[in-house]
Design goal:
A hairpin with a 2-residue loop joins strand 5 and strand 6. The chain is α+β, with helices and mostly antiparallel strands. It contains four helices and seven strands.
Length: 187
């Protein structure tokens, strides 16, 4: 399968380096068939009831799909403020590696340890909020000495007035995460 990104971003800041690719929902459909990401997208899409409306945040209950065993790969960000750097991470999963796990629970995007990751993520969530539609990214990065390569689907959710106030998202690792040494640590 040949992927043709709709948009791409590459940046680095010292030892932190990342490439981020916005992919089409057609790529999502081909690549994520029968995965966890496909399951949450299907649930989100079913809540729309065949319309183009953004599902209501009150109706998007992952325990309706997974019971009390919601996978760690599913999280959300509260987007009820104008400044995306103030969006708050909620239901943030656990991680065995560094600053990307439960320690981010309840933190604003501006408090994420990596400047380039926080900035890019804030821009992507803001784009999802403004476009009011799902966005699918592939992200390949080394952040804080941790190499991560994964895909993510973002799904907007609205309040009763129709404002996007939350974005549910799921990730799927493409490769196992691992620690890397900084260049000065290599002898």
């Amino acid at each position: 399968m040949i992927l043709r990104p709709l948009d791409r971003l590459h940046e680095n800041d010292g030892f932190d380096d990342q490439s981020r690719f916005l992919l089409s929902l057609n790529d999502f459909a081909e690549r994520e068939s029968s995965t966890l990401l496909d399951t949450i997208f299907y649930y989100w899409d079913a809540l729309r009831g065949g319309s183009d409306k953004v599902p209501n945040v009150r109706h998007f209950e992952l325990r309706n799909v997974f019971g009390q065993n919601t996978p760690d790969a599913l999280s959300a960000v509260v987007t009820d403020t104008a400044n995306p750097r103030n969006f708050v991470l909620v239901n943030h999963g656990t991680s065995q590696l560094g600053p990307f796990g439960a320690d981010l629970e309840g933190k604003r995007l501006r408090d994420v340890p990596s400047v380039i990751h926080a900035r890019a993520t804030a821009q992507e969530y803001q784009q999802c909020k403004l476009l009011r539609r799902p966005l699918y990214h592939e992200i390949d990065q080394v952040i804080g000495g941790i190499s991560r390569h994964y895909v993510r689907i973002m799904l907007p959710l609205a309040n009763d007035q129709g404002d996007v106030v939350k974005i549910a998202y799921g990730i799927r690792a493409l490769e196992p995460n691992y620690y890397m040494k900084a260049p000065e640590e290599i002898s």
